[in-house]
Structures are given as structure tokens and as C-alpha cells.
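User: Working on a comparison across species. This one is Tripartite tricarboxylate transporter family receptor from Bradyrhizobium yuanmingense. Can you predict its structure so I can line it up against the others?
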Amino acid sequence: MVHVPYRGQAPTTLAIFAGEVDILLTTTSDTLNEHIRSGKVKLLGVSSPGPSPVAPGAASIGSALKGYSVETWFGILAPAGTPPDVLAKLNAALGTVLAMPQIRDRFLSYGVEAKASTPAELHALIAAEIPSWRKVIEERNVKTE
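Assistant: Here's the predicted structure for Tripartite tricarboxylate transporter family receptor from Bradyrhizobium yuanmingense:
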């Protein structure tokens, strides 16, 4: 297998549609999900540690490779020094919106499982991921362009 570094998701997605590559590891998108649903592209697995509501019935790579988990996440950040009461109000509003079934369903249709968390949980997630990604970057001698 040969690694082909594409510059972003759009060229990667086009490469699988054009038959330039036989397999790809990428995040989901509305376009890609449409082709998965139509059968033009086959989903081989999800990179979450267990089953995903984004791809019901898809195999979890983590179930075959013990400890494997690479999940994309989105965080909403505020400037340093934002008052705690403002952060709490924003977080509560976000939690309310993400709990709405129509919002959850819309995100799922785009291939995203929307989950609310607290500022402390997001901070802990970021802190936990830094060492593992640092190790990958250093071991593979990854350089930015």
C-alpha cells in the first residue's frame, strides 16, 4: 500500500470517486455520505472505539485493532479571560440546541455525531490528545508545509 498525501478532504474524496485510490481514511462529509448511501463508495469501518450512530452497522476499527481510536471533534472556543458566567451561559445554550432531535438528526445526516460537553471536558480532551499526537508527529517526522 502506498500513502498518497492529498491536500485536504475535497481532493481525497475526488480521488476515490475517480478510482485514483483504492482506499482512503478521511472524515465524513455530506457528499461522501451521499455516495456511501447510493452504493458508489463502500464504507469499510469507522475509526471510533465502538459503533457509531453516524454509520449504523459499520464495523469499528477499534473492535479489530485493540485501542485504536481516531475521532474528529469540533470545539467552540472563547477568548482567554471570558468571564465564567458567560462561558456557562454559552455552554448551556449550546447543550440545549444540541439536545434538539432535529438538530441531532441534521448533524447525523452530515456524518457528525453532535455531543455537548463542558469546558472542563473539552480542556481534558485536548490535554489528553496532545501527547499521543506529539508521539505520532515525532515518530513519523511530520513537517508542516
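For your comparison, note: DSSP finds six helices and no strands in the chain.

User: Helpful, thanks.
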